Amino acid sequence: MQTAKPLLIISGFLGAGKTTLLRRILAELDARELRSDVILNDFENATIDAATLNKHTTTTVAPIAAGCACCESLDELLTLCEAAASGAGDLLLLELNGTADPLALLESFTLVENKLPFFPRLQVCVVDARHWGKRNEFSRLEARQLESAGFWLLTHTERVNHAQLQELRSTLRRMAPNSVETTALQMVQILASEEGQKITSPLGIPRLYQPAHDPIGGSDRPIAPSSRHLDDTVHGLSHRFTGWQIKLPHKVRSASMKRLLRRLPKWVMRAKALVKLVEEPGCRWLFEKVGDEVIPHPLPVHELRHASSSIVCIGPRLDTEKLQALVVTEFGVQPPPTY
Fold first, then answer.
1. Containing structural domain, residue 187
2. Which of 42, 67, 150, 328 is deepest in the core (most CB within 10 A)?
3. What is the pLDDT of residues 16-75, one digit of tens each?
4. The predicted structure's pLDDT at residue 6
5. What's the pLDDT score for residue 162?
C-alpha cells in the first residue's frame, strides 16, 4: 500500500511573496534532510520562478504554464501529482499562480483523492499586508484564496504601521474563522513532524478538505465538495487575467530595465523580466514589478543560461500593442517577435 505524503498548497495574490515563502520552506526542510517535489503554476513562463529555486533542496521541480490550473491544465497537474506521490520526495509543495481560485482546485482534488495519496493536505494563503483588500473588483478573488486555506501568513508587514497590522489581523480572522495565522517555520514543523501527519482539525485542514474517511466525525462516508462555495462570478475573475511574454534585446542595462518596469501601465499588475545585463555578465537577472512597486534588487538566476531575454506581463486587460511600443521606446529597436 502506497504511503501518504504531506501536500502543501501555497496560494496568495500576485506578488504577495509565495515563491519567497517556498524558498524559505525548502531551505528549512533541507536542514531537516527532507526533500520535496515542487510544482509551480504560473502564467506564460513558469520556468522563470523554477530557475530561482535551489535544486539541492528539491527532488523534482515541474513548472505548469496556465492561468487557471484547475480548468486549463488539470490533467497535467494531476499527472505530476501522481508522479510525486510515488516518487522519491518526502512531500509535495504546490505553488499556485497569483490569480488562481484554490477552491475549484481543492474540489477537483477531492473528487480524485483516491488517486492522490497525500495527507495531510494543507493550504497556506500568503497575505500581502500592503495591498490586502485594495484589489478593486479582484478583492473577492483574493478573499477566496484566504477563505479556502487552513493557514495564512502575513508578508511585507514592515510596510504598514502597528494599528493597520492589528486591524488587518482582525479582518482576516473574521473572514476565515477556521484558519489560523502561521509562519514559515511553523509550517515546516507541521510538515516535518510525525504529529503533523495526523492533523485533522480545523487548525490544519478545513473539514471540507479532510481525507475521504473522516476520523473526527467517525464516518466512512466520503466527504463531497460543497456547492455553496461554487461562486461562478468569483471563479470567473481568475479567468480574466492573461499573461503576455515579450522578447527583449539580448543584453540590456539595469537602469533601462527598471525604467521600463516603472513605465508599465497600472493594468499590468505583475511583471517579471529575465535578462542578461551589459554591466554584470555571467548569469541572468530576474527583475520584478508588483503593482506600482519595482523590486529594487534583481535576483541572480544561474539556470536557464540559453533562454532568450524576455518580460512577462500579467493583468486583466493587456493592451499588447502598447506594451510592445513601450519596449521599442525604451530600447530603441524593434524587439524580436513575441511568443
1. 5-237
2. 42
3. 999 999 999 999 999 999 999 999 887 666 667 777 787 888 888 888 876 666 666 778
4. 92
5. 96
Q: How confident is the model at residue 256 (pLDDT cuts 50, 70, 90)?
A: very high
pLDDT of residue 71: 67
Residues 230 and 245 reside in one and the same domain: no
Mean pLDDT of 113-132: 88
Which CATH number covers residue 302?
Answer: 3.30.1220.10
| Pair 286, 148 in one domain | no
The three state secondary structure string of the chain is CCCCEEEEEEEECCCCCHHHHHHHHHHHHHHCCCCEEEEEEECCCCHHHHHCCCHHHEEEEEEEECCCHHHHCHHHHHHHHHHHHCCCCCEEEEECCCCCCHHHHHHHHHHCHHHCCEEEEEEEEEEECCCCCCCHHHHHHHHHHHHCCCEEEEECHHHCCHHHHHHHHHHHHHHCCCCEECCHHHHHHHHHCCCHHHCCCCCCCCHHHCCCCECCCCECCCCCCCHHHCCHHHHHHHCCCEEEEEECCCEECHHHHHHHHHHCCCCCCEEEEEEEECCCCCCEEEEEEECCEECCCCEEECCCCCCCCEEEEEECCCCHHHHHHHHHHHHCCCCCCCC
> Residue 114: which CATH number?
3.40.50.300
Q: Are residues 226 and 300 in the same domain?
A: no
Does residue 337 sit within a domain?
no
Domain boundary among the residues 212, 237, 262 is at 237
Band (pLDDT 50/70/90 cuts) for residue 224 is: very low
Which residue is it, cell 537602469? 255
Distances (CA, A) of 294 to 117, 121, 125: 41, 34, 23
